[in-house]
Specification:
58% of the residues lie in helices and 17% in strands. The chain is α+β, with helices and mostly antiparallel strands and 339 residues long. The protein starts with a helix and ends with a strand.
């Protein structure tokens, strides 16, 4: 039923669409040509974005035949196809296409460490299309890697003059500003970049600035956002997060659980879920009684527990049965990150 309704809806859309084309002065034969192209691509099983379109709206020869009959009923009136206007509109894009090809090659050269070739290619791109902010941004990155801070800053400034709404040169400029000790300017650039497009790199930079200025709670928020992302900086952010916060909230990073051996001995399993090694660990084993916690034993772990590793040890407690064990919990009350 759904499929039949969908075909009827498509047929109705074709009828109204072609009639509106005639009233607007466009050639309805173009709609038929487009449908014929879709049928050919569908039958050839052409991959790409069309696969998703064909999944819900598969073209058919019956639909093309119906549109041909409608075209005949309309008198095949002809009309505007817009080819000349389209060609005029993309003429500049065709003209500057070599600039973007040079840019792509420059990016590959930079990734390969060939900065001299990268610089030559991006200069070529800028000569062809001097109004594209992408190009001076890349040249600024090249100069930054070569240690030419003044030239890099000039390029980032130029990119932003061309396109103030481009986030990347603000992020890149902030890195240089931090190196030069201009923390306020760097923070301003990062906040402006996030307003345009939130990125892990910008949040991480703001976290570093907040940490350096003693705004710990703010830094934790920034590092938390990056640590939970899928970016390349997530591991570094998780490490900084642990270094700042683990001593105050050890139970958030060290996971303690209890188990019972067959002989009734209570075992402690402790896992370091943080991104840093930890030492000075103390764990209290006790029994919740209403709102109180009745401690039974405190364990101090010697040495360090590496990141991502776990340790098991005998608590020294002998229990009667599993029911007694279920009434006990383990709480991590102290730990220090190893810097």
């Amino acid at each position: 039923m759904k499929s039949r309704f969908s075909r009827e809806a498509e047929s109705e859309a074709d009828v109204y669409g072609m009639r509106y084309m005639v009233r607007a002065g466009y050639d309805p034969a173009a709609a038929v040509s487009l449908q014929e192209t879709f049928v050919r691509l569908f039958e050839d099983k052409s991959p790409g974005w069309l696969a998703g379109l064909f999944a819900s709206h598969p073209p058919s020869r019956e639909r093309v035949a119906a549109n041909r009959r409608l075209l005949a009923e309309l008198g095949n009136p002809g009309g505007e196809r817009g080819r000349e206007r389209y060609q005029r509109a993309i003429a500049h894009l065709r003209q500057v296409q070599p600039a973007y090809e040079a840019y792509a090659q420059a990016r590959k050269a930079l990734d390969a460490g060939d900065m001299q070739r990268a610089l030559g290619l991006v200069d070529k791109a800028m000569r062809i299309e001097p109004k594209e902010a992408l190009f001076p941004t890349l040249r600024g990155e090249i100069h930054k890697r070569r240690g030419r801070r003044r030239e890099a800053l000039r390029d980032f400034d130029r990119a932003l003059a061309l396109n103030p709404d481009y986030y990347l040169p603000r992020v890149q400029r902030s890195l240089l500003e931090r190196e030069l000790g201009r923390q306020t300017a760097a923070e301003r650039d990062l906040e402006a970049s996030i307003a345009l497009l939130p990125t892990a790199e910008a949040y991480y930079g703001l976290g570093l600035i907040a940490e350096q200025r003693g705004r710990t709670r703010e830094a934790l928020g920034y590092f938390q956002a990056v640590a939970t992302s899928e970016s390349e900086m997530s591991k570094d952010a998780a490490r900084r997060l642990a270094l700042l916060d683990l001593a105050d909230h050890p139970d958030s990073y060290l996971k303690a659980s209890l188990g019972l051996r067959k002989d009734g001995r209570l075992l402690l399993r402790l896992r370091n879920a943080s991104a840093v090694p930890v030492r000075g660990i103390r764990v209290v084993i006790g029994r919740p009684v209403g709102r109180r916690f009745e401690p039974l034993r405190t364990l101090r772990l010697r040495g360090r527990l590496p990141a991502g590793r776990e340790q098991r040890l005998d608590t020294g407690l002998q229990l009667r049965d599993a029911a007694e064990a279920r009434g006990l919990v383990a709480r991590v009350i102290a730990a220090r990150p190893v810097r």
